[in-house]
Structures are given as C-alpha cells and as structure tokens.
C-alpha cells in the first residue's frame, strides 16, 4: 500500500514542470488574412488588366477590334451588374427564407440575362477570330470547377 502514494508523488513531480510551463507565445503577427489582400472578383482594375492582357495576346485586326469592343462592353456591364448584386446581397441579407430565395433568384436571373447578352456579343467576334485566337480565348476563359471564368488561369490576377 505504500507503493501507491509513492507512485502518485512521482507522477505529480514529473507532471508539475509540464503544468507549470507558460503557454507558447502566439505566432508573430503575419498581417491580415490572405483574402484581405486579394482583389474582389468584380474589381474593375483587375477586370481591366485582364481584358488588356487578353487583348494583347489576341493581336486583334482592325476588323476584329469593333467586335471585341462590343464583347468587352457586355462583359463590363455584366461585371457592374454582378458587383451591384453582390454588394446588395451582403448589405441587405433578408432573415427569412422566402426573401433570401427571391434575392438569390434575382441575382441568378441577372446572371442568365448577362450570359445571354454575352453569347450574342461573342457570336460575331468568334466567327471573326482565327483558330489560334480562339485557342487563346478558350484558354484564358477556361472553366475551373471551383473558380468560374478560369480564376487562377483565366480572369484571375494578371500573370
């Protein structure tokens, strides 16, 4: 029976330094989270930089330039509309499910309308592009399963 108190005392003595240690210091402040420095998906400067980069890669002819400009005008309108919806979505989130669904449906309908306009504007441009230019446009706007519009490869930050 004397062994049990000795074991408890030994255990207590070995555990005491561990329990008495101060917690490790927090890691040094590494600044804001990575998302804070990233541009918003609807950021106008980012959009314009990607369009300018893509236009340079396409090396458009004089005949193709007006068709490209019409396409970019539609893209810009869609970007502005989605930015407004996104801002409204975060500023006025309804608390009840029917209102949230209505808000979401309005945003999705706006996206559908924008995609239909984009498709119409792309038709004449696509017909005027060479196979090499089509390949460039395909790669620049490649769909990534988790990032629409080729984020990281397409419409993401200029590379």
Q: How would you characterize the overall build of this protein?
A:
This protein is mainly alpha-helical and 159 residues long. The chain has one domain. The chain is 67% helix and 0% strand. The protein is built from 6 helices and no strands. Helix 3 runs antiparallel to helix 4. It is flat and about 95 Å long. 8% of the residues are buried.
Radius of gyration: 28 Å
Order of helices and strands: HHHHHH
Strand tally? 0
- The structural domain count equals 1
Task: Sketch the major β-sheet.
Answer: none
Q: How much of the sequence is in beta strands? A: under 5%
Given helix and strand content, the structural type is mainly alpha
The number of helical runs is: 6
Low-confidence stretches: 26-36, 150-159
Judging from the principal axes of the Cα atoms, what is the shape?
Answer: flat
- CA distance, first residue to last residue: 74 Å
Report the mean per-residue pLDDT as an integer.
76
Proportion of residues in helical segments = 55-70%
SSE topology:
Blueprint: H1 3-20, H2 34-37, H3 44-58, H4 65-91, H5 97-128, H6 131-140
Helix pairs in contact: 3-4, 4-5
